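User: For a teaching handout, I'd like to show students what a predicted protein-ligand complex looks like in token form. I'll give you the sequence and the SMILES for pyridoxal-5'-phosphate. Please answer with just the structure.
Assistant: Understood, here is the input followed by the structure.
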Amino acid sequence: MSSIDFKNLNIKVPSPIVEVKTSLLEEKDLQLFIKREDQIHFEISGNKWRKLKYNLIHFFQNNFKQVVTFGGVFSNHIYATAAACYELGIPLIIYLRTDKIDPNNPTLQFVQGKNAQLICLSRESYREKDQAEFIHKIHREWPNSFIIPEGGSNHFGLKGTEEIMAEVKVQLSSLDIIALPAGTAYTAAGIISTSSTNQKVEVFSALKGLFLQSVLHELVEDGTKNWVLYSDEYFGGYAKVDQTLLNFIDWFFHETSIPLDPIYNAKAMYYLFENIKNGKYSRGSRMLYIHTGGLQGITGYNYMKPDNRILIDY
Ligand SMILES: Cc1ncc(COP(=O)(O)O)c(C=O)c1O
């Protein structure tokens, strides 16, 4: 097989773009569109499909025997990779950042249901997973494996994310602002590289701190691109969720019928709306938010916090 059979996977691209309206947007005279990457596929959703696509094509073109990948126990990447590999008949081994497998964890239940083989790594060993010695060990244990890094963040992943703006260019004209969340910043790099110089890309990190700035400088060589990175200062960093964020998820769903995951999209959208409230964007601007999916994170969150659940349908 030299390319993925899209029909078998039932991947829906181009993902649709919808306009959302709220009284704040009206008051500030802004138009906000959302690219529903979350609707690409129920299980292989959002930027996860974009990042897997060329990795999987490479897998088939080179006759590898299995895929090996990595992730945390609630990772959107392991969820999507397990679903894609299962549909395509690819054996999958996942190295997990955990000492033991919680049999009730819904993400792990899902990936096991897709026949993925799970191997636990302590936090210390997990940190060494990208080092040559560990990679050799994987190839010894699993000969002829194709290794997809955590989050699908490699040059194949980047190539896939560059297709998002190619779709947007056909779907929407004259955009001023493009906004999206970031974890490794590979999706943001793909968007920035393919944006026009008169557009500004607002990147909202799901992590505290601005270390992704150097990643973006490295991945986006074109210095004429206009982008800014925001740190997750208010919520305090990766996977930190408070009542303000939960209320925002409810409010946004109520206003737009669009679900947001608590780890990436709810935070990015929250910060985008804070910027809007603070008058950061010129009146008349046309803005596009890229919804990167990850909605299974709601199930993971609800499992961890059964007394303070996110009660939206997705
Ligand atoms: C739903 C979702 N949105 C955004 C991101 C961040 O993407 P990236 O790592 O390319 O910055 C991820 C994963 O890392 C994700 O799962």
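For the handout, you might add this sentence: The pocket of pyridoxal-5'-phosphate is lined by residues 46-47, 76, 151, 153, 181-188, 261, 264, 292-294 (CB under 6 Å).
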